[in-house]
Specification:
By secondary structure, the protein is mostly helical. The chain has 6 helices and no strands. Helix 3 packs antiparallel against helix 5. The chain is elongated, with a radius of gyration of 17 Å. The termini are far apart.
Length: about 120
């Protein structure tokens, strides 16, 4: 996909498609709601992960995040929040229904991770 965006004509078309998507008030509002929910769940993921690990009942199973936690200490939280910010910006920049749909599915997946973290920690 990156190579397909390297073509100036395709980059221009992508920018035009994004601009048309942003012209829709409904799409902008749907994207904003999706981004707000995503970020709330992202913060809940950070809190529930820390809680499960601190309780001794859990560990970080994502090898990338686990490595980041080992080497950056508490800095992993800032890295995760920065990544959430980049992703949020991308969705707000291109609020196409397909983008919003896939983004919402990914958010539901993250909510299931939060639920699992709380189960592991014994909250439920």
């Amino acid at each position: 996909m990156v190579w397909s965006l390297a073509n100036a004509k395709r980059r221009k078309k992508l920018a035009e498609d994004a601009q048309r998507s942003r012209a829709s008030v409904l799409r902008r509002r749907a994207a904003l709601v999706a981004v707000i929910v995503y970020n709330l769940i992202g913060v809940a993921d950070i809190v529930s992960t820390n809680y499960a690990i601190a309780s001794g009942a859990g560990y970080e199973s994502n090898p990338l995040v686990s490595t980041l936690m080992d080497h950056a200490g508490g800095g992993w939280v800032f890295a995760k929040l920065a990544l959430q910010g980049v992703i949020s910006f991308m969705v707000l920049w291109f609020p196409h229904w397909i983008v919003i749909g896939f983004f919402t599915l990914a958010t539901v997946g993250n909510a299931m991770v939060v639920h699992n973290n709380l189960l592991i920690a014994g909250v439920f």
